[in-house]
Specification:
The complex is a heterodimer of chains A (542) and B (123). With 542 residues, chain A is of the alpha+beta class. Chain A contains 16 helices and 13 strands. Chain A starts with 16 loop residues before the first helix and ends in a 5-residue tail after the last strand. In chain B, 40% of the residues lie in helices and 20% in strands. With 123 residues, chain B is α/β, with parallel strands linked by helices. Among the domains of chain B are: 35 residues, no CATH class; 35 residues, no CATH class. The chains are: A alpha+beta (542), B alpha/beta (123). Chains A and B meet through helix 11 and helix 12 of A and helix 1 of B.
Chain lengths: 542, 123
Amino acid sequence: MEHHQCHLDGNESAECWISDVLDGIPLDEKSLPIDRINKCITCDAFAEAIERSTGRRRSDRVMTQAINRFLALFSNYNRELNDMADSLKEKIEELTVLKTVAEALLKATDLKKGLKIFLSGITSGEAFGFNRAVVFLVNHPRHRLEGVLGLGHLNVSSYGKTWDRLQREKLSFDQIVEKILNETDEPDNALSTAVAKIHIPLRINLGILPKSVILRKSFRIEEFKDEHSADKQVLGLFDRNPCAVVPIISKEVVLGVVVVDNPVTRRCISDEELSTLETLSYMTAARIDNLILQNQLELRVAQLEHVNALLQDNKNYLVETEPLIEAGRMATTIAHEIKTPLVTIAGYAMRAKKEHADGKDISHNLDVMLEEISRLEKLAGGILDFSRERKLTLETLDLNTLINETLDIVTDKLSYSNIEVIKNLCDKNLYIKVDRNRMKQVLFNLIDNAMQAMPDGGKLEVSTGTGSTYRWFKIKDTGCGMSKETVEQLFKPFYTTKSAGCGLGLPVSRRIVNDHGGYLEVESIPGEQSVFTVNLPAADEV
Amino acid sequence: MMSKLLIVEDEKNLLELYRMEFEEEGYSVATAESGKAGLELSETFKPDLVVLDIKLGDEEGLKVLSDFKHQSKDRPVVLNTAFTHYKHDFTSWAADEYVVKSGDLTELKSKIKALLERPKAQG
């Protein structure tokens, strides 16, 4: 038997199960979906079938009416349930998108990448699908909004040409994020370059961007017009497009705003879209805040690294030029040391010339000139010693023997100056590896120094001894001693407290001792004594 | 009346030369080998003019100059030094003249003479 055709559904293949059942064709339960039943209960065929199957009894009619009402109610509930399910599904999708963007943002390694991911979430077709999105951040010290980044094309005419490459390639949001995370030194798109030039002072009368920051509120507008910004660049950018501005707030602080618009589709932004965008801004604000802080830290570190590099350059420059400066200082000092005796010699020479012309005895003038000349000679010798090549001819010898050899030479000079020599030498051989002549020079200089300290005579004690790795000798005088200040200046070239010295003896001595790997120490009590100790590395017996 | 010069110079031979030369010029000369000794001597000798040597690296030299000026504001001080660069040090501007050391004392003599003949400042 043939199936009857449905009266309501235009589809010819649809069957009218009511007519089928009335003709004795069995009902296939599976072929009756719930939405079909909803239609059937409004169909004339159904009403007629009920009429025909209802008895004439009153109770039958009441029952039939009741069943009809239940059916209608059931149908309504079913429709509502379906609507609720659809709405829940949408909400779940929306939350999934928000969660995906927020999670992707956690992977961002710097502020720029973070904001790119944030804007990609907003513009990606998979998520919000806005045509464009732009971020402005608050520069708190300067109290202004500064354009940072934009995603989308710069103007409608360039659509298709400059529409973001990521959009053209129809990538999924995950793929876009992957791409952003992997890119290095990607040049800014045209929109970002234009946006970065925009700075808007945070004053409420300067349009909805600063207003959104100050009032901490979102705005949705059908058309971006003059009243929405005083800034020409901003007006040009959002030129008469439907647009929305949402603040990004973290820990009560407004970090900036995100502006979305639809210049291509010119689709108005719904309340629901605005509300979702607010949720996204709320969910991602803390992460963006962290990235801003990280960015500031990185900038600070970069600045410090730059300063450090400058300091390093400076230090290198100083290290390189220090010897030259020292040489210049030395030359000035030498010039001064030479000039004074020369002036004196010239002065006495002129005097001698004048007195000779007057027939006077000029021998006194000549004596002074000779004295000054000998001073110049001594000075020249000192400078030569100081600057002479520091190559040592080393030999192993006994320190005590070296001391005795040197003292033998100066004994007469010392006794003539009324100085008594006390020797206090160690009773065993003290081997050292030294340049014999240079070390004798050190001894002469120290003994000469002691003599200068005792113009009226005194005692000169020479002692030797040994430690575990060093041998030492001490030259002690009972002279005038030195103040702490004098001791500090003692080894500076040309520093002298006595008229006879040239101020090079001690610097030269210390340099020789240092060249041997040893060190020279001084202890002095003003008015009583001075002790010079020379420590030299011990050597093995030959 | 003889003008009185105080010469402060730590080079003995040079100091002796100055003493001889200026005594021959008719001055009464006192000499000191250090700034401190010069300042003390100045209290009793009461010179009309001071010739003062300042040395390189000797920070005290310029202090001695200011001490002399402090002692008597109107008494001229002539700085006599081996260096020319002190001329550019503003602390040396307190001196009335600046003469670079030379064996030829003509310049020093003429400047001292000019300073002593200068009319004294009023008040």
